[in-house]
Amino acid sequence: MGLFVLLSLTVLSEAMVMDKKVKESFVLDTVSAVCSYAAHYKDHLKYWCRGYYRDYCNIIAFTPNSTGRVALRDTGEQLIVTVSCLTKEDAGWYWCGIQRDFARDDMDFTELVVTDYRGAHTSDFWSVKGKGLTRSQKTRQAASAFATPLVGSLLGSSA
Ligand SMILES: *[C@@H]1O[C@H](CO)[C@@H](O)[C@H](O)[C@H]1NC(C)=O
Question: InterPro entries from the xrefs (predicted)?
Answer without folding.
Answer: CD300_family_receptors (IPR050671), Ig-like_dom_sf (IPR036179), Ig-like_fold (IPR013783)
